[in-house]
Every structure is written in structure tokens, then in C-alpha cells.
Amino acid sequence: MEKASEDAVEVLEGVYLIKDVYWKFIEINTFLIISGGEATLIDTGIKMMGQKILKHLYALKKIQLKYIIITHAHNDHLGSACMLKEKTKAEIACHLLDVPWLEDTDLQFKETYCRFTPPSKKKRKSFDKVVGGSVRCDIILRDMDVLEVGDLKLIIIHSPGHTSGSISIYVPKLRALFTGDNLQWTSDFLKKGHLGLISDAQLYYNTLKKLQQLNVRYILPGHYSVISGKNNINKTFSLCFKQYNKFEEELLSILRGRSLMLREIKNELVSRIGAHADEDAELCTTYAFLDKLVKNGKILKREEWYILA
């Protein structure tokens, strides 16, 4: 692999990987795709990555950045989008269902940092450190939309489960699939003991099945290593399904003969599987799998409803 400049590496012909590190241990990937004098950027990383990305845009060659595609509206994937749009005039593209978070960082903060836990000044400071601000979406994406960059077609694959508007991008000519955070349990994540972040467990399972059917040679995820070769790709999907099933098995084991509150269940699950960098994310994932088990009739959540006098 040829290094284009200090931190950008050409991982496929015309595809450059620009990395950074978040939470001291999670590697963040952004990808620059160049074809026919045009380029598209897939994700923008956190706010501090903006200048690094600009540096590589200018260093590689004189090109027009046509699109900035956001795979999903989480802080470590859109953090420098506002600045990059202002500097490059590229059009921002995001799936319909994640547009509200992209365009309103206050809403994004509440839904991703404070859905299950109270807001605090410390949380807000952490959020503002990595998110540069709200940004207007120019192109609203839906499943099977196609964007063209030079002679490349970029097919949008709606991939919900991590967020409701998560997408993957399939480039047939390269047989490459850019997955954002839609593969939560690659070998890299499992080595870190990473719990994962799932907002809807059933949708996430459907996404794994959907992506598994694509004929790809390369998976370019939002974090850690590029995955290449049929055997490694098959192994990656097997690991994801295995870990997915483990969640259900562990939750059923935790609840056997007991009735517990969400946080109690989460704490036991974390001790058995692994942690996330943020407790709110741990609670989100735990709730997503519990909700699926309720809908499948495997567990019961007791609630009382009454008319307020």
C-alpha cells in the first residue's frame, strides 16, 4: 500500500484511508474516494480530524470534493462535517432518518449521550469537544440511491440497527463495501472487549443478513482494519452473528429465575461480554436486545397502565 502523505494510505486504487484515534483506543476511519478528477469523502471523523482531512485533500491532487457522505449521525462520524462543508463547498449526503441529528446537534446530544442517563456539563463538554456543529443536509438518501463520482457508482444500502438511518455504500466496480458502524463485532472490536452500540436489535440482525448477501472483496469499516478476501469477510460475518446470538443467550441466562431493572441487567451483561466507552451506549444496547426478546415472546416486561383521575 502506497502512502499518499503522512497519515493517508491508499488502500484500494483511488481509495485513501485517513485515520485518527478516539476515546484513546478506538481508531476512526474516514475514506476519500477519487475518480475522474472528482472525489467523495465517506464520514468526517471527530472535529479535530477536519484539518488533517483538508491537508490530504490538498496534498493528493487537485480535485473537486463533490460529496461528503455521512454513514450515520454519530459524533465520531460527522464531527468535522460543518467545517469541511464550509471549506470545500461539497454537498452533504445523509439518510433521511438520521438527518434530524445531523442538522440539530442539541437533539443528537440528547439522543446519543442522554437517552438513558441524565445530561451533565461534563457530558456536554465531551460532546462539544468532538462535534463542530450542526450542518445542513443537501442530499437526502434512501435505500438503493446512486451517487456518481467520476466513473464510479456509489450505491446506498440502508443498514439500520446501529442507528435508524445508518447506511453502507457499495461500489460495484471496486467490489468494495463501506460499512460505517454496521459491523459491530469484527475481530478488532472483539479483541478490545467492545460491547457494541445497537439501537434496534431486530433491524441490526436484518442488516447483517442483507450485507452478507453482497458480493464484495473488501469491507472498509468506520473503525479499525480494512477486511479483504472472501474467507476473512465470511469470518467477519460469522463473528458478528455469533456475538449477536451470545447477547440473547446471556440475557436469558441473567434473567432466569429473576426480575431485574435495566441497569442491573446491563451491569451483568457488561461483566460477561465487555464494555462500551459510555454507559448510555451500554444501556441502549441492552435495552435493544431486551426489547427484541419481549417482542419474540421470550421474556416479559410487567407494566401497569391506568387513567389519571
What does the model show?
- The chain has helices at 50-60, 75-78, 81-88, 99-103, 105-113, 121-130, 187-191, 201-212, 230-255, 262-273, 279-295; strands at residues 8-12, 15-22, 26-35, 38-42, 64-69, 91-95, 139-141, 146-149, 152-158, 167-171, 176-180, 218-221, 227-228.
- With 309 residues, it is α/β, with parallel strands linked by helices.
- The protein has two domains: 8-242, Ribonuclease Z/Hydroxyacylglutathione hydrolase-like (Metallo-beta-lactamase, Chain A), CATH 3.60.15; 245-295, no CATH class.
- A hairpin with an 8-residue loop joins β9 and β10 (167-171).
- α10 (262-273) packs across α11 (279-295).
- The relative contact order is 0.11.
- Residues 1-5 have low confidence and may be disordered.
Question: Keyphrases for this structure?
Answer:
309 residues; alpha/beta; Metallo-beta-lactamase, Chain A; 2 domains; 7-stranded mixed sheet; 11 helices; 22% strand; globular; disordered N terminus
Strands in their spatial order, largest beta sheet: 1-2-3-4-5-6-7
Beta-strand percentage range? 15-25%
Please, how many domains?
A: 2
CATH class of the largest domain: Alpha Beta
